Amino acid sequence: MKKFTLKLFIINILFLIFNASFANQANDTINKDTKTYKIYKFDIKEEIAPPVWRKTKKAFAQANDIKADIILIYMNTYGGLLDVADSIRSKILRSTIPVYVFINNNAASAGALISIACDSIYMCKGANIGAATVVNQKSEALPDKYQSYMRSMMRSTAQAKGRDPDIAQAMVDPRIYIKNITDSGRVITFTSSEAIKYGFCQGQAESIKDVFKLAGIKNYEITEQKLTSIDKFIGFLISPVIKGILIMLIIGGIYFEMQSPGIGFPLALAITGALFYFAPLYIEGLATNWEILVFVAGLILIALEIFVIPGFGIAGISGIILVITGLTLSMINNIGFDFTYVPLSSITKAFFIVIIAIFLSIISSIYFSKKLLTSAKFKNLALNTIQKSDHGYTIAEKSMQNVVGKTGIAMTILHPVGKIEIDSDIYFATAETGYIEKGEKIKVIKYNNAQLIVEKYNSSEAEL
C-alpha cells in the first residue's frame, strides 16, 4: 500500500512538472504570436573605423531610449580597424538587449568578430563570414603577437555566445587544423550553408522579413537609425572632394593674405576652411590634438621663414613638411605613431589629396591674383589710368633722391624689405640682393619705383 502511494505521488509530481513546462512553452508561443517586438536597426556597410564606432554607440543609446526588444545590425563589410572592432564587440557583449546581425554579402575580418559577438546570425545566400587574419597595409599577415590577440578575442567571443571557439580562432590562424572543416594552411571562411552547419548562423534569409520569420517573430515594428542634419553635414565635409576644396581654401587664403597688408577677408577664409576641415575629423576621432598642433606648428614656421628669418631654409622646409603631415594624418585612422592597422592605400590616398589640393590652390591663387582686378566686374577696384612721366607725372621725391649714394645703418633685418637710418632719419628700403642683418652698414645705390635700393657697405672699396 505504501509503495502504491509513493508511486502515485511521483506520478503526480511528474505530471505537474510536465504541465508547467507545457504551459510555459505555450505561453512563449502565444507571446511570440501576439507581442509586437520593437526592433532597432542600423547599418554597418563601410570600413570598420572610428565613424562606425561613433554610429554604434549612438545606435545602442537610441535603442535603450525606445526600450527596443532587439537590435538588428545590417552588415556588409570587408573589415577594418581591430581596436574599433573590439570596442563594438564589447558593446554588443555587454548589451542587455539581444543583438541580431543580418549579413547581406560580407562579414570579413573585423566584421566576422562583430558578427560572432551577436546573439543570432543570419546570412543571405552567397554571403561569407570569416577570414579574420590581422594584416598590415600590404595585406601581409602581421607577427604572431597580433594574431594571438585576435585569436583570443575570437575564441572568447565564440565561447560567450555558445559557438565553437576552435572554429572561431581557425578563422584567424591558418595553422589550426580542424578535421573535415579546414585544411592546414588556410583560414576558415564560411558560406551561409557552412555557417549554419557548424553553428555560426541561425538561418539563411534573403530579407529582414525572412530574418524575423526564421526567429519566429510575427509582429514587429522597426525603428531605423536616421542620421541628423549634423551627421549628414559631417559626412559631407569628410568626403575626399570637399576635404580637397577645404585645403585649397586654407592655402589660398594664406597666400592672398600674404599678398595684402593687414588682416582681412583672405585670412578669415583660411581660418574658416581650417575649422571645417579639422572639426568633423576631430569629432569622428580621426584628427587628434597633436595632429592639429603639427599643422599649426608648420604654419608658424612658414610665417617665421617669410617674415623673420632671412633666406629660405630649414624653418621653411620644416614648416611645409609639418603642414602636409598634419593635414594627411588627420584623414587616416592611425593611433599616435602606430600605423600597423592603417592600409597603405589609405595613407597614399590622403597624401595625394593634400598634395594635389595644395598644388591646385597655389596655381589657382597665382592665376586669380592676376585676373581678379582685370576682370570686368572688379576693374573699378584698381586704377587703370597710366600717368606718364613725359606728361609731368612722377612719384620721385626729392628728399629720397638726395640720399642716393649715402651710407647708413640697417635698423631692422632687410629680408629684403626693412628700415634703415641715414643722418638720423628713418626710411623704408629694399636690399638689392639677398638680405642684410640688423646693425650692418648700408649704402643707398638707387631710388627706383618709389623705393630706396640698398646694399651692404663695403668699407674696403670705399678706402680704394
Offer a concise description of the structure.
The chain is of the alpha/beta class. Helix content is 48%, strand content 16%.
Q: If you average the pLDDT, what whole number results?
A: 81
Q: What's the CATH H-level superfamily name of the largest domain? A: 2-enoyl-CoA Hydratase, Chain A, domain 1
Secondary-structure element sequence?
HEHEHEHEEHHEHEHEHHHHHHHEEEEEH
Give the low-confidence spans. none
What is the fold-level CATH name, i.e. the topology of the largest domain? 2-enoyl-CoA Hydratase, Chain A, domain 1
Q: End-to-end distance, in Å? A: 146 Å
The CATH architecture of the largest domain is: Alpha-Beta Complex
**How would you classify the helix and strand content by structural class?**
alpha/beta
Oligomeric form of this entry? single chain
From the alpha carbons, calculate the radius of gyration and give it in angstroms.
36 Å
Q: How many domain modules?
A: 3
The total of beta strands comes to 13
What's the number of helices?
16
Helix content estimate: 40-55%
The major beta sheet can be summarized as: 8 strands, mixed
Estimate the global geometry from the Cα principal axes: elongated
